[in-house]
Amino acid sequence: MARGTDGRRYRGLAGSVCRSAPRAHGARPGRRSVVLRICLRSGEARPRVRSLVEERRLGPAVGLGTWGTFEADAGLAREVIGAALDAGCRLVDSSPMYGGAESAMSEIVRERRGEVTVATKIWARSVEEGREQYRKQRAWFGRVEVEQVHNLALWREHLPWLEQERDAGRIDRLGVTHYGEAAFDELAEALETQRFDTVQLPLNPRQRQAERRLLPRAAELGVAVIVMRPLGGAGSLIPPPPEEELAPLREFGIETWEQALLKWALSDERIDVVIPATRRWEHARTNAAAGSPPWFGVEERTLVERLAA
After folding, report:
1. Measured in whole angstroms, how far is the alpha carbon of residue 272 from the centre of its chain?
2. Lowest-confidence region among 122-126, 205-209, 233-237, 248-252
3. Mind listing the pLDDT tens digit for each residue in 237-278?
4. Closest to 53 measured CA to CA, from 21, 106, 16, 20
């Protein structure tokens, strides 16, 4: 059954009001507050725009990833992104690494620009290459809401010019990403500079290393968390259990195994948004349903973990 929300609360991730650690996973009726506070290099905090899922208008905490999906197929991008937006998704994540996905999604993004939070990346071997990637992104999307340094590549070198773009108002937030546990120490080092507003990392019931250090520290620093691979590792999704095993989760709106995995992650208040990737418009639509309350309590999260084992 769902847990109550009577635990002690404190100001945490992305300006949210979170329960104290022993009750961090209880269900709750709503999500995060609308202000993201970001620490400046000087240590001074300044209010930023709304949280990632509330930045343009309230919507599900499920976004859309584009790795290994439509690549350079603009027609497929229109179909999948259109379905996600129709279902209430707002954040679409991409990268120059994703085989033409940025270009493919640009037309539908421009047409529905007021509905989309663009989260893309700089993945470059030099500052000059990174600036050229950013120039193309500006041409495709007009602006970038979340610009991330992909896989920590030259993050120290890219930060100064990216900060200039953010301060000029052409980028809303700066982020940093990595998919591998071996890089988590450096990812933590990047967060400790207090110059990043978001972090993207892997999290699912079979990949929980980020819970030990990165999620607690991100919450302390007010860094918003974007979850990649919420359905499992690259190329190896967590297989579904027998359908009847999901029966205890029906009251939470769960109809599919994918929804159960997404809600498992989002029921941790330290998570702002999950970005499952898909090539199928119907999956984009059903995934979005996992991004709204009610949220899982400890009992439901434990069930999902057991089914995923």
Report:
1. 6
2. 233-237
3. 999 999 999 999 999 999 999 999 999 999 999 999 999 999
4. 16
CATH fold for the domain made of 9-308: TIM Barrel (3.20.20)
Q: Say how far apart CA 245 and CA 214 lie, in whole Å.
A: 31
Computed over its alpha carbons, how large is the radius of gyration of the chain? 18
Burial of residue 174, with CB atoms counted within 10 A of its CB: 0-12 exposed, 13-18 middle, 19 or more buried:
buried
Q: How far apart are CA 172 and CA 45, in angstroms?
A: 15
Q: How far apart are the C-alpha atoms of 63 and 48, rounded to whole Å? A: 20
The CA distance from 91 to 87, in Å, is 12
- Give the confidence band of 59 by pLDDT, cuts at 50, 70, 90: low
Tokens of 205: 């019931």
In this prediction the pTM is 0.84
Domain map of the chain by residue range? Answer: 9-308
Give the three-state DSSP class for 167: helix
Give the tokens for residue 47: 């209010």
Query: Which whole-number Å values give the CA distances from 169 to 66, 166, 188, 300, in the listed order?
Result: 25, 5, 26, 42
